Amino acid sequence: MSIKILRPGLQTSIQDLGRSGFRHLGVSQAGAIDSYHLKLANWLVSKPLHSACIESYLIGPTIEFQSSMTIAITGAQFEMLLNAMPISNNRSYKVRPGDRLEFGKLISGARAYIAFSEKLSYQAVMSSYSSDTTSGIAATQTPTLKADDIIQTLDSIDEIPVRTLAKELVIPNQKNIVVRITKGLEYSRLTKKSKQILFESTFKVDANSNRMGLRLNGDHLELKEKHEMVSSPIVLGTIQLPKSGQPIIALNEGQTIGGYPRIVQVIGTDLHLLGQAAPNSKISFYPVSIDKAIFLHQCKTKLLKI
C-alpha cells in the first residue's frame, strides 16, 4: 500500500487541483500547473478528476510500486519503461508489487502526471493534498519528493478497468504555444507600440521560470509613463510587466498580490497550456473578449465530462 521514489527526477511533487478560498490569507493556490492533464490521468484510473497525482517537470522519476494498482501517465511525453518494457501516455496499466516505472528522455512538453488508483493515506492541508514547493505547505513530509521517499496509499479492492483516452481529448504538446488573453486592468497604460509587440511578436520562456511564474523574454514592453502601483490582487494567469519590460505570467504558486501593472490575463481555458511550456518554448498571445472567454470555458467544461 505504497509507492517508493527511487529517483525523484525534477520538481516531483504531489498535486491535485489546489487549495481555494485562502488567497485573502496570502495562501497561493498551488496544485497542478496543467490541470487538464491531471484530470485526464485521474479518469484513466477511475478516480475523481480532482484527485492527487504525481507531477514531474522536465526530468521524470523512477518509481517502485509496493502494492497492486492501476496507473496512467499524461501530459509531457517521455521515453518510459515499465519493467523494462516501453509504455506510452494516455492509457492505463496494471502494476504489481515490485514493478518499476522509469522515465527516460523528454520528447515533448514539460510536466507529466502520474495517476494511481489507490487513495493517498495523508491528511489534506487546507482542503488539498497539493504541495506548495515555494512556501513549503504540503500534505507529505516534504513538498518536493526525494529519493527513498515512500508515498503511503490506502489499499483498494475495486476492480479498475483499463482505459484509453479518446483521440479528441489528446492535445499534442507544442513548442510554439498560443494562449488567448483578455485585457488587464493596466492594459491601457501600455504604449501603442508595446500593444502591437504584445500581440504580433513571440516571446521565449526563460530558464529561470518556476511554479511561481513563467518569465518571458522578447521585445521590450513599455508604459506610457512611469506608474507606481499599490500592491493589488493577482490571480493565476495574470501577466504583469515589471520594470525590465519583460512580462511574467503568474502560475499556481505565484504571490496573491503584486505591485507590477497587470497588462493582460490568460483565459482559464488556456491556463493548462502553460504547464507544458518548457524553457525556450515560444509563447504568443491572441486577444479575445470576456464573453468569448466565458463561452470557451463552458465548452471545455462540457468536453471534460468524460
Structural features, described:
The structure is a single chain. The chain is mostly beta strands and 306 residues long. The protein is 12% helix and 33% strand. The protein is built from four helices and 19 strands. The protein has helices at 35-44, 192-200, 271-274, 290-303; strands at 2-7, 13-15, 53-57, 62-65, 69-82, 85-87, 92-95, 100-116, 119-120, 150-154, 176-183, 203-205, 213-217, 232-233, 238-240, 248-250, 257-258, 262-266, 282-287. The strands form three sheets. Strands 1, 2, 3, 4, 5, 6, 7, 8, 9 and 10 form a ten-stranded antiparallel beta sheet that branches. Strands 11-18-15-16-13-12-19 form a seven-stranded mixed β-barrel. A two-stranded antiparallel ribbon has the order 14-17. The protein is elongated and about 65 Å long. The mean pLDDT is 94.
Q: What shape does the CA trace take?
A: elongated
Q: Which radius of gyration do the C-alpha atoms yield?
A: 20 Å
Write the element-wise H/E pattern from the N-terminal end onward.
EEHEEEEEEEEEHEEEEEEEHEH
Oligomer class: single chain
Can you give the helix content as a percent range? 10-25%
Q: Which structural class should the secondary elements be placed in?
A: mainly beta
Low-confidence stretches: none
For the sheet with most strands, the description reads:
10 strands, antiparallel
Total DSSP helices:
4
The counted number of beta strands is: 19
End-to-end gap: 28 Å
Give the percentage of residues in beta strands: 25-35%
What's the pLDDT, averaged over the residues? Answer: 94
